[in-house]
Amino acid sequence: MDKNILVQYSAMKEEIKDIRRRIEKDRKELDRLNKLVVSDSVTCGKKGKKPIRTVKIQGRPVAAISRKESALKKHIYQLEQKEAELMELTIQAEEYINSIDKSELRMMFRLYFIDNLTYLKVAEKMNYMFPKRKKSYSDENVKKRIQRFFQNVPQCPEKI
Questions:
Q1: Low-confidence ranges of the chain (pLDDT < 50)
Q2: What own/partner pairs with CB < 8 Å and gap ≥ 24 does 141-148 have?
Q3: CB count in 10 Å sphere of residue 45
Q4: Of 11, 52, 91, 143, which has the highest C-beta tally within 10 A?
């Protein structure tokens, strides 16, 4: 387990947001199709060149609705799979972060990798949590600490 697990976690969160957006779009389209009534006028017989009468036919686009329902079910299944993967990655990322010895670094890692904050936002949060610290945190300070951790600390083995 190494830094890649933290990067994958962040990417998976964004992917799940995208899948959820697509599912919501499909649901709205499905609702629109369920409310939609298609109508057409049909001629009944002819007397010479003129129709005897015309009839108005109304109905729902059943084929389009069933296609959308099957697509929605596939998207929901895909979302469930990705959420399960995300839960596993969350556990692995938390285990990796909890293996860090220094509490201060663990907090930085949680804010940066799990909460997906920028270095500047992490510095602001850390300054808020430690207001009596002599030297305040900066975005460069946070960035360097995270980089140094990955350079100086031996990585965990791939499999535990």
A1: 156-160
A2: 142/108, 142/112, 143/119, 145/105, 145/108, 146/105, 146/108, 146/109, 146/112
A3: 7
A4: 143
Are 69 and 34 in contact by the 8 Å Cβ rule? The answer is no
pLDDT tens column, 1-42: 567 777 777 787 888 888 888 888 888 888 888 887 888 888
Burial class (CB in 10 A: 0-12, 13-18, 19+), 9: buried
Q: Is 49 left (phi over 0), alpha (psi -120 to 50) or beta?
A: alpha
Angle in degrees, CA 107, 110, 112, rounded to 5 = 105
Alpha-carbon distance 136 to 131, whole Å? 8
pTM across the whole model:
0.62
Token pair of 128, please? 């808020």
Adjacent-strand bridge partners of 40: 57
Collapsed DSSP state (helix, strand, coil) of residue 116 = coil
In angstroms, the CA 13 to CA 116 distance is 10
DSSP-based three-state secondary structure for 47? strand
pLDDT at 160: 33
Predicted pLDDT of residue 157:
41
| Nearest by Cα to 76 from 68, 64, 88, 87 | 68
